Amino acid sequence: MSIKYIATSKLPTPWGVFAMHGFEDTETGKEHVALTYGELNATEPMLGRIHSECLTGDALFSLRCDCGFQLQTAMQNIAENGQGFILYLRQEGRGIGLLNKIRAYELQDQGANTVEANERLGFEADMRKYDMIEPMLKQIGVTNVKLMTNNPRKVKAMQSVGIKVAERVPLQVGKNRYNEDYLKTKSTELGHLMTEHHFVDDDK
């Protein structure tokens, strides 16, 4: 994989002004983004998140998942903290792409869970890769993190490229009656670390 840094610009958001750093995978043409907030201090653990693209949750406000809620909460937490970063990776639908994700949703509408739907389409449950994070983190100067995630694979991904994970910060937000089964599947079949209260639906 060949990740090329392209440019940096300001990104005003409801939580503050982030810096947006653009990267291109020159082998696949995929474009990834790192968001940073404040002056990054490489000597202290940096609050951050690896976030995989979810058009339906991030931009279309879907309640089928918790992705959009996690992204917004991460940005808010970073702004309140005064510094931090988000790696926004273009690997929709746990790596199967948007149209296949819609096909998987169709199977879920018929009763399959999120893992079964991917597997019926011939995919692994989670096909995301994280090898692009090393050059992205090097570019923005991050070596030590407090990682906002429920996914132990992301902790291992950081550690595998030499990044110290000083702390895993749980990010349990966005539960509702439409994604309760999805959250349970992420915990029981994908190994996400979530406490029992996150499976209780407050909206019923």
Any overview of this molecule?
The chain is of the alpha/beta class and 204 residues long. It is built from eight helices and seven strands. It has a seven-stranded mixed beta sheet, sandwiched between helices. Strand 6, helix 7 and strand 7 form a beta-alpha-beta unit. Helix 4 crosses helix 5 (114-120). The longest helix has 15 residues, at 67-81. The model is unreliable at 198-204 (pLDDT under 50).
Task: Label this structure with key terms.
204 residues; alpha/beta; 7-stranded mixed beta sheet; 8 helices; globular
| Share of residues in helices | 25-40%
Radius of gyration over all CA atoms, rounded:
17 Å
**Tally of individual helices:** 8
The outline comes out as globular
H/E element sequence: EEEEHHEHHHHEHEH
* Unreliable spans: 198-204
Oligomer: single chain
Main sheet attributes: strand count, strand direction, barrel closure: 7 strands, mixed
Average pLDDT over all residues: 88
Give the class from helix and strand content and strand pairing.
Answer: alpha/beta
Strand order of the largest sheet: 1-2-3-5-4-6-7
Distance between the termini: 46 Å
* Total strand segments: 7
Strand content: 25-35%
Task: Give the secondary structure arrangement, pairings included.
Elements: E1 3-13, E2 16-25, E3 31-37, E4 46-52, H1 55-59, H2 67-81, E5 84-89, H3 92-95, H4 98-109, H5 114-120, H6 133-140, E6 144-148, H7 152-160, E7 164-169, H8 180-188
Parallel strand pairs: 4-5, 4-6, 6-7
Antiparallel strand pairs: 1-2, 2-3, 3-5
Helix pairs in contact: 4-5
